[in-house]
């Protein structure tokens, strides 16, 4: 078994009242959960589902993009 690491963006969505995750390396694969832990578990399951679907279709599995970073950008607004 191969272990891969993926960067996952985790944020609280106030409108949905849920934790939302995004995996940029996998086409912005996204899931959510009522708790942060639940959202991350859903993300693990979604990644495994992505791998299974890719294998069935004979598609390559992208390598983890460990260069992704979250930056804070300041923008002046009117």
Map the helices and strands:
Layout: E1 9-13, E2 18-23, E3 29-33, H1 36-57
Antiparallel strand pairs: 1-2, 2-3
What is the end-to-end distance?
53 Å
Overall shape:
globular
Total strands: 3
SSE order? EEEH
The radius of gyration over CA amounts to 15 Å
Mean pLDDT: 90
Main sheet: strand order: 1-2-3
Strand content bin: 15-25%
Main structural class? alpha+beta
Helix content: 25-40%
Q: What does the largest sheet look like?
A: 3 strands, antiparallel
Number of helical runs?
1
Report low-confidence residues grouped into runs of 5 or more.
none
How would you sum up this structure, described in words?
With 78 residues, the chain is α+β, with helices and mostly antiparallel strands. The protein has a domain at 9-57. The chain has one helix spanning 36-57; strands spanning 9-13, 18-23, 29-33. Strands 1-2-3 form a 3-stranded antiparallel β-sheet, with helices on one face. Strand 2 (18-23) and strand 3 (29-33) form a beta hairpin. The mean pLDDT is 90.
Describe the structure using short key phrases.
single chain, 78 residues, alpha+beta, 3-stranded antiparallel sheet, 1 helix, 3 strands
Can you give me a brief rundown of this structure?
With 78 residues, this protein is α+β, with helices and mostly antiparallel strands. It has one helix and three strands; from the N terminus they run E-E-E-H.
């Amino acid at each position: 078994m191969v272990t891969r690491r993926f960067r996952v963006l985790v944020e609280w969505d106030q409108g949905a009242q849920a934790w939302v995750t995004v995996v940029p390396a996998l086409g912005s694969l996204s899931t959510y959960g009522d708790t942060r832990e639940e959202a991350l578990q859903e993300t693990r399951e979604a990644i495994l589902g992505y791998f299974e679907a890719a294998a069935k279709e004979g598609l390559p599995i992208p390598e983890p993009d460990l260069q992704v970073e979250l930056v804070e950008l300041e923008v002046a607004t009117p």
